[in-house]
Amino acid sequence: MNWITIALVSFATGVFASLGLGGGMILIIYLTLFAGLPQLQAQGINLVFFLPIAAVSLYFHTKNKLVEWKKIVPVIISGTIFVAIFSFMANAMDNTLLKRIFGVFVILAGIKELFSKKEKPEAQPSASDDNASQ
């Protein structure tokens, strides 16, 4: 792996992850297909890579009032429990099976994105709108 390729993949992963678009898929695909790492190791690297990106993104999204904490706390709690359970299961799986499951997940996520209708986000009032109404 040369450092330019690593920098480009890291940049793309960081951009997509901070936008909530699944940058981990890019990193995992790169690590397994091009860098030759086993699926489980690639997933572990992805988790370590994701933590600082998630922290920075969460800070800015919270600052911009885009995070509804009352709604996400139950998801965080249940997600943490299921991550622990499925991490143990992933450790027990064969690498080939894990790759296939991940591949099916990526394909299904792509199909969903291709055929889902996008809703227009509600317009956020800007500071200039607030000043005009006063």
Outline the structure in words.
This protein is mostly helical and 134 residues long. The chain has one domain. The chain is 78% helix and 0% strand. It is built from six helices and no strands. It has helices at 3-18, 23-34, 39-63, 69-92, 95-115, 127-132. Helix 1 (3-18) packs antiparallel against helix 2 and helix 2 runs antiparallel to helix 3. The mean pLDDT is 82.
Blueprint (SSEs and pairs):
Elements: H1 3-18, H2 23-34, H3 39-63, H4 69-92, H5 95-115, H6 127-132
Helix pairs in contact: 1-2, 2-3
Care to give the gist of this entry?
With 134 residues, the protein is mostly helical. Helix content is 78%, strand content 0%. The protein is globular, with a radius of gyration of 18 Å.
Average pLDDT confidence is 82
Low-confidence sequence ranges: none
Rounded to an integer in angstroms, the radius of gyration calculated over CA atoms is: 18 Å
Number-wise, the strands total 0
- Helix residue percentage: over 70%
* Content-based structural category: mainly alpha
- What's the order of the H and E elements? HHHHHH
Percent range for β-strand residues: under 5%
Total separate domains: 1
How would you sum up the global shape? globular
The termini sit apart by: 58 Å
The biggest sheet, with number of strands, parallel, antiparallel or mixed sense and barrel status, is: none
Query: What is the count of DSSP helices, taking H or I runs of 4+ residues?
Result: 6
